[in-house]
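Subject: sequence -> structure tokens, single chain

Hey, anyone have a minute? Need the predicted structure for the following. Not urgent.
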Amino acid sequence: MNRLAGVTSPYLLQHADNPVDWWPWTPEAFEEARRRDVPVLLSVGYSACHWCHVMAHESFEDEATAAYLNEHFVSVKVDREERPDVDAVYMEAVQAATGQGGWPMTVFLTGDGEPFYFGTYFPPEPRHGMPSFRQVLEGVAAAWADRREEVAEVAGRITRDLAGRSLAHGGQGVPGEDELAQALLGLAREYDERNGGFGGAPKFPTAMVVEFLLRHHARTGAEGALQMAADTCEAMARGGIHDQLGGGFARYAVDREWVVPHFEKMLYDNALLCRVYAHLWRATGSELARRVALDTADFMVRELRTAEGGFASALDADSHDAEGNATEGAFYVWTPEQLREVLGEQDGRLAAQVYGVTETGTFEEGASVLQLPRRDGAEHPADTDADADAIEDIRARLFAARERRARPERDDKVVAAWNGLAIAALAETGAYFDRPDLIERATEAADLLVRLHMDRSARLVRTSKDGVAGASAGVLEDYADVAEGFVTLAGVTGEGVWLDFAGVLLDLVIDRFTGENGTLFDTAHDAEQLIRRPQDPTDNATPSGWSAAAGALLSYAAHTGSEAHRTAAEQALGVVKALGPRAPRFIGWGLAVAEALLDGPREVAVVGLEGDPAAAELHRTALLGTAPGAVVAAGEPDGEEFPLLRGRPLVDGRAAAYVCRAFTCRTPTGEPAELAEQLGTGAAQ
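Reply:
Had a minute. Here:
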């Protein structure tokens, strides 16, 4: 029976034709395991996961392996992006038991969902000290048949340990100057001065940490924070992790120099990086930051936008040739000969010089990942006016040639949280760079979330595909990131309805996701009960639901004056007070929100008559202010669209901006330069 045929997850659909008798994560699967008295094999992955595809080809497509699985197990396949709660609970168990985690995640469970054996990728034959997948299956089946009491004891002990874990950092006080200074010092210790970024290989983009550094510099003037942010962003932009032809970023670099990426491209990475590069331009006026922010926004719209107006989750790391063979990175890499074939001898040599393509290669089989490397501190040809036109022509020709290659597959699943991140990024990038088309794309994605992902009680569905809502309930990060996107869109467009929608979602966060003293959980009170209610405040590839909720709650409170939302934000930031000084790399967004709290955040109301260019200039100036987390409302004087507009008239018949902070308001001004001074003096002003 093909139980995966009707699901909306592209990852599950990739396994629909396996000989394995897969079940989706349902109560019926566990009932079947109890009825048959067999263990459950839980296999968790996602569509763009390279090693998930490898294990699927080696084991799940193998008839003999599938037959053994079908006889001895109930096999359950989970898309971690669709069910992050299931993934989080069992990944915590894997990491506790093995000291490491990753995908594919392989866990063996009792019929009650209790885990007792763990792993990630298992090869088809023993290698590098790892048993084969078949050996693992046979060992688990033997233990289940012959040592059931031992299995039950292990499962019970693990489950009790997981259930007993909880965080009590809410309500412990908000982080202050000392905690943020300690966090900055910790980041400086981990900073890679030679290559930019933090830590060693593999090296991940650090958009949330960079956002904290930018906000810290804006608030304190700390030049070291700005330098780390700018150098990290430049290193990533020039490296192979950045797609030099088509824009956007790969998931991570396998080396510490940013040369060779793991080629999958995720919506969330690109949304976060688009926004942070736009913020870097706002602070410094960097032309490189402007170019990268725009090419990343254009990549998202061109490659990830769906027919319904949302944004798809990811592009795969692999490309398939005519015979169906998958090769990682084949779409992106080049040899000198391939450059010459497309460009001719002279331009081919120039392209090799510009993009760091060598005869020996930087990747596999003599191919190179395109970069924009500097040599011996010399200015790069792409940065000089004399060569810019020629290099842009080369880039366009290579991009056109690449478009004829076999393309990576796309995961068309629309995830609410990641679309919220994209809405915020596209709205701000469109506003900064006079790209109304990007603001329109952000608005269309927001419309889709309201229309398809929110039910009549405003509860969110996490995913949709092809205009059909999925079955998985939204988790905390969905509510928080969508609210963040809506608040940002409201500030850019002057349409207060988006602030109203954000308020509805944030009320649900307070009502359904909050525990004692403001602690937050990743699932709602009435969500499906797993062996543990997931609760993780640390930022990973995306802001944690906890950090994202703190930020959205704080922004909404600044817009509305709601003490309840302000209190909830402050209570949530207790975890940043506890973890920020000790693990700043893993709570970057929480630190950025704490910067906004210490700065106010500032509240800006821009009033003017519709169509007044003076009001439009003040609005743009307000959006370009670098004050951490400042919120902006723009509209008619005494307007009803936003609470911040009420009681705010024109000044001497002219458009004006009102800036308030910590219950104190500055004298309203109609001068953009004076407004810029009140909100920070980034180079883009």
